[in-house]
Fold these 4 entries.
Entry 1:
Amino acid sequence: MPVKELNAKEQHYADTRDEAEELVTEAKDDIYLTSFQISEKHNKYGTYFLVDLKFSYDTPREIMENATSKNDEVPKEQHDGVEYNVEGDGTVSVNTKEEAE
């Protein structure tokens, strides 16, 4: 199962105000968008716009607790294993006698 951050931030560049607003419009389709900001910036090359988008992927507490508790569980079907003997010369023999119930 891939890990997904619960909070994510994205920053995009736009040359014009219209491009910046188009980026925000596309982001509004995502139900996890919590906030956006369009910042107008200036440098020696001219004006540009930065679009900051914040997403919040809220996960219910019960789902998170169930996911961690499943990993900690011990398997229900456990067995004692197989009995074996190792001889002095390195050979291994398996004990095949079964106990009567």
Entry 2:
Amino acid sequence: MEEIAEGVHNITITEAKAKNRIQVSNTKKPLFFYVNLAKRYMQQFNEVELSALGMAIATVVTVAEILKNNGFAVEKKIMTSTVDMKDESRGRPVQKAKIEILLGKTAKFDELMAAQAEERERERERERESGELEVQN
């Protein structure tokens, strides 16, 4: 019975961890889609795990560096590994590189986010004012 309870406890931990994980694919999503999503996850969970395979690794590293260089995140952990996958075209197993980067909020994260929100609001106000001026002319 203890083994079952321990197994259920482990499942809960795994599910909780997955909620703050962003799996970056090699699609055409803009870089800042992932940057902004990571900020949102850090607001909610205080940390975010960025994960990628193969060619998407460069995107994950770039997202992490943008967040770190702008003062939003600190690097907590980096894990690299290889994963066995099936090659769709040849039907045989291949190994792909994998990276996982765990980022945490900096001490000034909330302050930076508030300043960013304030700047967006000022920009909206300027757009509204310029729209009103065009209507008057």
Entry 3:
Amino acid sequence: MMKCKSRKTNQWLLKINRDPYIENPNWDLIQNSLSEMDGQRLSMVLLRRKAKGEIIIHGGNFSEGKKIYYVNYWYEITDQLFQEEEEMGIEELYPYDMHFELVDDTKTEEKECQITISQLTVMPENVCVCWNLMIKAVKHFFDHDGELHPTLNWREFEMF
């Protein structure tokens, strides 16, 4: 008797630095990758939910004795998203490109910090978030099918 294998759709992709994508990662792998971020050897983790966008975490640099992260969300219609949406029968989320960044309301925009975003970059302190905010945002995104955490402060920004 032949058994039929059910084919699981690859909905999640994980990218660590510039390594190839890892299909359908589990939460332990995602969390371990995030915990290893140091702003040097490992400075970028990307988690993509097909047809719904991706959350990108940069940094892991130390600032005042604590690790800091820059977290943003991308949804770009020029990407494969339209094709993936159509293939998966998902209605488009936004009619145009959307970019959001996570903001820590307890910090100011006037003060700056250095964080690795491709290279060492100076960013406003309020977008350099702590582990707890970052992990809360990523865990919710993963657990809720690509949705941004509704009680965290996300602001839209323009890509040039």
Entry 4:
Amino acid sequence: MDSQTKRTPNAREIAAKLRDEIAAGTFGPNDRLPGGRAYAKKLGVSLMTVQSAYAQLRDEGLVEGRTGSGTYVRDPAAGEQSPREAAQNLADLRVEVARVSADLSDLVERVKRLEETVGSLAGESGA
């Protein structure tokens, strides 16, 4: 039995999971996303959390709400990027941002070490 308590996902995490599923082709153009209430119950979150996740995907242009029917993966117009391509591009961008963040963290540490070395040398020459 798992001794750790299962943590419920937040809206950002739910949106990321759905975005990845769109990128993988699990949900294609005109596919309906899970109904908000049932999905919220399945995930153990509030309906508002799921609605917020869907709103994020709508803001990104990946899905559209259809009044009284649900939330669907957008079917792109001719010449427009597909939701799958857009979701994959967003996933690629997340990977690149993580790489750049790691590089920046490394750079900050290198600058700190350099400042410490320069400070030590300046202290030695001033003594």
